[in-house]
Amino acid sequence: MSKSCTLSICALLLLHLTNTVHSLDVDAFQRIFNSTSLSTEQITEMAALYNEKVKVRTAKKSVLSYLNELDDVPPKELKNIKKLFVEMWSDELLLRKLSNESFTNIQGLIDPNLQTKIDERRQQADKKYGGDFAKVQLEAVRFAVQSVPASEKVKLQQELDKPLKNYNSTAKRQRLVKAIGRFQVDEKNSTSKQ
pLDDT by residue (tens digit) across 65-109? Predict the structure, then answer.
């Protein structure tokens, strides 16, 4: 696979085609924190707090404060949980920034009627794939690329790829792929705590 092909696939995975902030659903939190000593209820509370506070850019601080208040988690385990959360937050922030850049770049190429249809398709895909970030983004972008007039397709792809030009080293691309992978559903290991 060529580098340009890899970047185009990343662009498809990263595009966020709505004005709303994407959220990490409870299932994503359950997958990420399933191997910790946190209970299902604690993980659910953490997810709700994160998604409420991410809109006002205080998600990291709020969740870390919540974790510090837990008195039933051993200190060493709590330190590992906080480290895992900060890694997750960092990956999600990276994807959010790239998604927003891609969205900004293509805004002028998509008319409002098509944008409404893309939003609807994205919501359907979110239900279909259970919040899997990569699959939802990929389906929304494919729909957008198929729906724009033929004369706009090349321009759309160029605009999608623009933010990825900053990821011009192997290390940066690996960081990006790691971030995408964190939010993908592993069908074999997607069970939550019982």
Answer: 999 999 999 999 999 999 999 999 998 888 878 777 776 777 777
Task: Quote the CA–CA distance of 51 and 59 in Å, as a whole number.
Answer: 7
CA distance 163 to 29: 27
Q: Is residue 194 part of a domain?
A: no
Please report which residue ranges of the chain form alpha helices under DSSP H: 3-14, 26-33, 40-53, 59-69, 75-106, 112-128, 133-147, 150-161, 170-182
Its domain, for residue 106, covers 3-189
How many other C-beta atoms are found inside a 10 Å radius of the C-beta of residue 187?
A: 7
Give the pTM.
0.70
Nearest to 105 by CA among 174, 149, 142, 152: 152
**CA-wise closest residue to 118 among 89, 102, 139:** 139
